[in-house]
């Protein structure tokens, strides 16, 4: 515990009670089970989602790579691994955004015996939602992306034969992340879910593993969770083990 | 099918695309699993919930009876069965509200071979959310209410030894209802959930069964689902069979 430095915790002016409540909302399009089932048509434009936030992650129309939204700007990391900017008019089948107003700031490294994710978890309420920004230098980081799909084959099949992984060493950049409580299983991913973009905004992806060299973690608790359920929504069927494998790139 | 009269369906000006999106949100406090586990402290004032809607249902602080919100006014049916008005400053541990802007109006009776709930279901997208108002004369209707709880014993135990049921025959009044899709199990009640208030606003409760004589059904689809997760939220553990028994008063 003493190996991380708690820089500022619960900054008074950033407390929930004093922030406009709509900024405390984590808003998502569709559900993870629907995406898992192969519903890849983009239904909601990023421009509409920006009403709900400036920070988050997801994918793009037809599962075309990994989406990172940071400071109100969006990047796609397609299966080529070469990041590109995403226009506000593009649509997503699944994404989650919030207005990022962190209350808690930590510096973590890899010298304590406590895993980086556990160090973050120690500063969260595990039964509520949070957005997490991890910025700095990573000694190693592995990401993946997925190829655009023309058909609706389920996500586990896409991961099994289509994902590409990318290994970064001694890299500077930012992870955008969400923490979701276990009770939203089927709707979003329980636990942590991180996407990464390099400091030069050229590469990144869905994070499979990460080891910090020296990073600053900013945590924004969210007291409200919102789902946009598009016309023609197909819920899919839950499979928690398949989801866990997909998230870990297996 | 021909036995019900479809009065008006998809009134053009009430279509989703032309309504402010925030009116298309079903917003709730806490989750049904948390309530089931005995978390009865009121956390959110009705006055705050009225930002999210003028129509809905729930319970009050310490599980003190059944809450009905209709046309922006709230009633409680306590275990005495005698309805009373609820002040905006009162708090709820679990309630769900929406701005009621119905798109679909039906008249149903009990002369077709199709159950009233199935007649309503035929006009819903089962994978999305809806609010349902059923107004008119009921040949019979059974409700229940529950006593205020000083301790946090789980809801199934309260129902088993504390609920009071009320039988109405040839009664005029309004049911306020919600329809939730199966994938929000644990968060809200899948399927239909109705509360009732008599036309003279003296009685009502959580509906256990209903037989329409002649009623008008108004349906308001909701494209967005929002959960307010209060500070200190305790999620409880899911038990679908226990929930079904509670909803049916068993």
In short:
The structure is a homodimer of 250-residue chains. With 250 residues, chain A is mainly β. Chain A has 5 helices and 15 strands.
Descriptive notes:
2 copies of one chain form a homodimer. By secondary structure, the first copy, chain A, is mainly beta. Chain A is 12% helix and 42% strand. Chain A has a single domain, classed as 60s Ribosomal Protein L30, Chain: A (2-Layer Sandwich). Chain A has helices at residues 32-36, 46-49, 116-121, 155-162, 240-247, and strands spanning 5-9, 25-29, 44-45, 55-59, 66-70, 73-77, 84-85, 91-92, 95-98, 104-108, 129-145, 164-180, 191-198, 204-222, 224-228. A 7-stranded mixed β-sheet of chain A has the order 7-6-5-4-9-2-15, with no helix packed on it. In chain A, strands 1, 10, 11, 12, 13 and 14 form a 6-stranded antiparallel β-sheet that branches. The two termini of chain A are 32 Å apart. β15 of chain A pairs antiparallel with β15 of chain B.
Assembly type? homodimer
Q: Which CATH class of chain A is shown?
A: Alpha Beta
Kindly report the CATH topology of chain A. 60s Ribosomal Protein L30, Chain: A
Low-pLDDT windows of residues of chain A: 1-18
* Largest protein-protein interface: A-B, 27 and 27 residues
Major beta sheet of chain A, specifics? 7 strands, mixed
Looking across the biggest beta sheet of chain A, what order are the strands in? 7-6-5-4-9-2-15
Average per-residue pLDDT of chain A, rounded, comes to 91
- How many distinct beta strands of chain A? 15
Following the backbone from N to C, one meets helices and strands of chain A in this order, namely EEHEHEEEEEEEHEHEEEEH
Provide a count of the helices of chain A: 5
- Main structural class of chain A: mainly beta
* N-to-C CA distance of chain A: 32 Å
Taking all Cα atoms into account, the compactness measure Rg of chain A is 17 Å
At the fourth CATH level, what is the homologous superfamily of chain A? Answer: Hypothetical protein, similar to alpha- acetolactate decarboxylase, domain 2
Strand content of chain A: 35-45%
CATH architecture of chain A: 2-Layer Sandwich
What's the structural domain tally of chain A? Answer: 1
